[in-house]
Queue: 2 jobs
Job 1
Amino acid sequence: MSLATLGTYELFWFYANWHRMRRRGHPRISPFWRTFFAYFFCYSLFKTVKVEAASANVPARFSPGFMAIGWTVTSLGWRLPNLGWVVCFFASVAFLVPVQISMNHVNQALYPGHDPNTRFTAWNIAGIVLGSLLLVLAILGSLLPD
């Protein structure tokens, strides 16, 4: 979803995960502001996921610091010339994948019957189609001479 929505889904992803953290017993967290300043709070989210995974006896095979630095640097690479921004765009998503995998395993361990949200809704499909078209046009635009 992140690739197809040109990174907009990442904001939703951060917001939804901070919102879940607040519901799980962190009432002082403001999901909106933590998402707005995601570059500064991503490490905190990744570290919390790692700690919760350990407490649920779920292996989390990622370094929160490495993932936070990698995601931040690659997310800021959208201003690179030519196709450099495309490489950074795909790489930024790759830094979130291990965190999401750990979250899925933690949720499965803590809430065995929960809905893992693995289906695409009509809105998801519309976003994928429109976003993919925009992504292709943006890549083609990067290849064209000035």
Note: The radius of gyration is 17 Å.
Job 2
Amino acid sequence: MTFDPIEIVMRWLHVMSAIAAAGGTIFALVALLPALKELPDDLKKQVHERVRPRFAKLVMISIAALLISGFYNYIFVKVPVHAGQGLYHGLMGVKILFAMAVFFIASALVGRAPAFEGLRQKRAKWMTLNVVMAAVIVAIGAVLSKIPFTH
């Protein structure tokens, strides 16, 4: 095992981006949305207009960082040491599919596209699904970390 500073930076970037995106969603789901329910509609709208662009920026930066660091970690770090391991690569494929679903839902929720207004009307439901899928992604990652290297 060698010390590779780029590998460490990419791993750190991946974990920090996941924490920011998932943590922000959990905060919004369990603290912000319930607090907003108690406010008058005009004040709710004002808060949303101030929070949405900032949270959207965090979500988009996190998604970009997760894609860059995730594919780097997989292609340059994990593929060489898990060559020929169908279980590893199959689980990684499932993890990537779940991540793409999370990215799509998160983007739709923080965006302004009229096509996704229906999702935004049921924001708590979709945020809950994203939190559950993020937990599944972390669980798959834990399993992947315990699959021995091929060499």
Note: The chain is about 85% helix and 0% strand.
